[in-house]
Amino acid sequence: MVLTAVEIARGVRAGELDPVEVTKEALARIAAADGVVGAFRRVRAAEALAEAAEVAARADLRELPLAGVPVAVKDVTEVAGEYAGWGSLAGRQAPFAEDGVIAARLRAAGAVIVGLTRVPELCLYPMSDDPTGVSRNPWEPAYTAGGSSGGSAAAVAAGLVPIAHGTDGLGSVRLPAAMCGLVGLKPGRGVVKEPVEGWFGMSTHGPLATTTADAALLMSVLGENPGLATIPAPSAQRIAFSTQVPVTRAPLPRPLGDAVTQAAELLTAAGHTLTEATPAYGFDTMLALVTRWFAGPATHADADFTFRNLQPRTRTHVRLGHLTRPFVRDRARTRWIARAEEFFRAHDVLITPTLATLPPKALRWHRRSWLANVVPAVRVADFTGFWNLAGYPALSVPIGHHPTLDLTTSVQLVAPPGAEPLLLALAAQLESANPWPRSR
Q1: Is 361 a catalytic residue?
Q2: Which of 28, 115, 132, 375 has most Cβ atoms within 10 angstroms of its Cβ?
């Protein structure tokens, strides 16, 4: 079993583990398994070993929260000497001269960046494939690892690295976490400070991990808040639970609803008060989400990509984004936040399924039409995107198991702004009461 990030960092700080040897072991696992899993667009073998040696020589080694921990970063990240591919052959491929804020925070904490993980073009879909490969679920390789942080999820679920960085604009951390049986946290808006917010403020950075403690540790580094690494014991909470698919009320597969029931039973036994209740999501909120899903990537494409070289599905999406961009306004967001605030005056936390359908299959989705991509994308993500628009923290945690497939079933925990510690505390409580297998 691969050591957790907490265990690796503790061992390196104590002088019991060598960062170079830890990195060599991670690179060996990647070499052995990534041909099947397809987690990485680029493995930084030589660079990672050099970085590990630098970490081992640091004078502040005993103080580093991620001392010697191999980390995968999503291929949207500014890493010195690399380019961010964004799943595309249409963008600039000149290497960055210096680290961006995410890579800089990881390195300052002592992490070793072993590679850049695969994403769909412009991070548009919850299936991660590009012209060089497909990210597969390590538990059920016929199914996608999710997206857009699918490569990061595959890398962690396969045990290639203990933790990975992702971004979440409509569920892109939580969806792959749910598909691959991981803990995935989307923090609230502004918790991870960066120069520019993506997708009109809906996108943020978050951790993917096999344990709640590892997710909390990585979140503390991404958010530059060491206190987040310490998970509190939760007091009794008023928890709402709902399996109603927002707006459409589409049928929900029974195993996904059963996970919510199981989580509710576990949290009731832990002393919390559980009530069935559903927020007033609203059709106007869904329209605001869709508008931003079109317009955000269109703005990004206009700035950094050659339109004619984009994949056909992406060109269609960008064209629609040009049409919808004038309609991106804050009125629907403001109305939705007001309804969410009203809901959370009566409840401290909301539990829903993370996924609204079973995961899509692992295919060359980039060769398919825009409509063929959009239909499964919209259906599977029904529960997640609303909380990006509100800017509320939300976390996916494994709970059960599909009765016939080797797939985890997960739940989403949502709480008001500032409640990341509470979500992590409840996830840790569920993990203690109902441990899940850590990696394939």
Answers
A1: no
A2: 115
